[in-house]
Amino acid sequence: MIGVGKMKQYSNVLDKPLSKGKQEVSLTAFAFLFSELVQYNQTQVDNIAELERRLEDAGYAVGARVLELLCNREKGNRRETRLLGILSFVHSTVWKVLFGKVADSLEKGTEHEDEYMISEKELLVNRFISIPKDMGTFNCGAFVAGIVKGVLDNAGFPAVVTAHFVPIEGQQRPRTTILIKFADEVLKREARLSQ
Amino acid sequence: MAAAIYSLYIINKSGGLIFYKDCGTKGRMDTNDSLRVASLWHSMHAISQQLSPVNGCSGIELLEADTFDLHCFQSLPGTKFFVVCEPGTPHMESLLRYIYELYTDYVLKNPFYEIEMPIRCELFDINLTQAVQSDRVALLGR
């Protein structure tokens, strides 16, 4: 970064670059805002699949913006073109900016070639949320799945992204797994590129 | 041997029981009895506020009986938290404060909770169960 390590004196305050500022926002404020987002969308739908889709759409818009921002800020206007590159970009760079930490794990699906999973023991958006029993397998992580989808789609890696609860042995709370299933064209291109 | 907590209640603004938890073997109550205790306490609390000779009284905070103590904490919006425990159990005020904190976190921030309605939140239950364990309560007294 330019100018790191020495403090330059600016005579005119307008010449001074804007500081990056505090990078974190209040978790409480976020939790209430997210809770409102879920509650609002709940009034607009009549089934759970629809609610999931709406949360995903809300996340998609975030993902598209985050990709632009981070490619510019962290990657010097470059973006990843390879599958593993973009996945680790999501797993580390995107996660760190959005949630203040790297995701707990990034794995390749064992059954299918085109599936990858990002797992998080305690997803930030789910920190205060208990899903009622009658909502079945619904996961508010759909919002995060939407973010991931937004990033991947706009980087040229179309994929279907879903959020699931996965129980862990010996733990009361299940973890959340973001399942990424890439489109055929992505895998074909990847195969061609690695020749 | 640490003194025991018998049971824990949360009542809403209008005196309805929205949460009840048994913590020990003593003083167990069926649903009807616990509802009765809740609305009784709500009225007594309101009456005590009116009858108090002191201006600006906020209601009963502690009721001491031969066989139990009842500690009550009322939040600003009017939700009351009270705990029934063995006489002389320490740190109950801080436990109630902590339970209020858990309530604001895991109940009020949960999009699926309807305000003033009975509390059914898994995360609240998990954290509450941990909090009322006697060794945890002692830590609150620091």
Automatic annotation (TrEMBL), chain A:
Keywords tagged on the record: Endoplasmic reticulum, ER-Golgi transport, Golgi apparatus, Transport
GO cellular component: endoplasmic reticulum; TRAPPI protein complex; TRAPPII protein complex; TRAPPIII protein complex
Principal localisation: endoplasmic reticulum
UniProt xrefs under InterPro entries: NO_sig/Golgi_transp_ligand-bd, TRAPP-I_su5, TRAPP_component
Record keyword ATP-binding present: no
Localization: Endoplasmic reticulum; Golgi apparatus, cis-Golgi network
GO biological process: endoplasmic reticulum to Golgi vesicle-mediated transport
Pfam families associated with the record: TRAPP
Subunit-structure text: Part of the multisubunit TRAPP (transport protein particle) complex.
Stated name of the protein: Trafficking protein particle complex subunit
Provenance organism: Eutrema salsugineum
UniProtKB/TrEMBL annotation, chain B:
Subcellular localization, as worded in the UniProt entry: Endoplasmic reticulum; Golgi apparatus, cis-Golgi network; Golgi apparatus
One matching Pfam family: Sybindin
Gene Ontology CC entries for this record: endoplasmic reticulum; Golgi apparatus; TRAPP complex
BP term (GO), one: endoplasmic reticulum to Golgi vesicle-mediated transport
UniProt main location, coarse: endoplasmic reticulum
Gene3D superfamilies cross-referenced by the UniProt entry: 3.30.450.70
Key words, A-Z: Endoplasmic reticulum, ER-Golgi transport, Golgi apparatus, Transport
UniProt keyword Nucleotide-binding, yes or no: no
Family in the record: Belongs to the TRAPP small subunits family. TRAPPC4 subfamily.
Assembly behavior: Part of the multisubunit transport protein particle (TRAPP) complex.
PANTHER family: TRAFFICKING PROTEIN PARTICLE COMPLEX SUBUNIT, TRAFFICKING PROTEIN PARTICLE COMPLEX SUBUNIT 4
Protein name listed in UniProt: Trafficking protein particle complex subunit
Originating species: Eutrema salsugineum (Saltwater cress)
